[in-house]
Amino acid sequence: MTIKEKFQQLKKEGRKAFIAYVPFGFPSIKQTKNILLILQEAGVDIIEVGIPFSDPIADGPIIQEAATMALRKGATTEKLFCTLKELKNRIKVPLILMSYYNPVFKFGVDRFFKKMKDSGLCGILTVDLPIDESSEYLKKAKKFGLETILFVTPVTPKARAQRIVRASSGFIYYISVTGITGPRDISYASLAKHIQELKTLTNLPICVGFGIHTKEQVEKVWRFSDGAIMGSAVVKFIKDNYPKRNFSLRFKKYLRSLCMK
Fold first, then answer.
1. Domain count, the chain
2. Does pTM top 0.90 for this prediction?
3. What is the mean pLDDT of the chain?
4. Label partner for 3 (CA 20 to 30 A): which of 126, 173, 183, 227?
């Protein structure tokens, strides 16, 4: 299923998207397979997989710690693609990749995008690649039929936001707060105003991430956006519970409590 098809389905069902982020290789490569399947079974609409990176600029301490653990356990870009390819016929919801540009560049952009396509990924978010330097990246992603999800923040000027939404595909990732990922308080009135303004510039779905860590926040964000993205809280739940008995059942129950209306 493509991102566009997913949002069309959600619109018909009168629902908003719940998108969950997990780092590849956390708490282990073997567990990643199980975790991705649980996310799908629990009703997560779009799954965002992160490539662990040693020098993150946007990740808060929860995701940084998870990425460090994944790297220590041997998570690599090549292993990510191999793992996802093994799951290609089992994951039916849209699977997207979040990365910094360094792993993409180091791997080779064309080779990276081909591996993405072969592995069943349908879109990519590259955190630290500005719109001003992304023309070649965008062209190559389009060549491989991959969606390029770009970021807009509360401090993005309108003229720049216009450039970003024109270059984006799939959906717009709206960063709810300035700073790094992790549980935060959110100013809903200000956020709703920014989303409404952004909706005058694009017909793409707008999904909100950063700071969202409770069911209440998810439901409030759903009121004025097309989807809520949760990462740190999901990663923290995995960290706190994966060694315990019945982890799969506990994780599925937790996810369902977040993504069901």
1. 1
2. yes
3. 91
4. 183
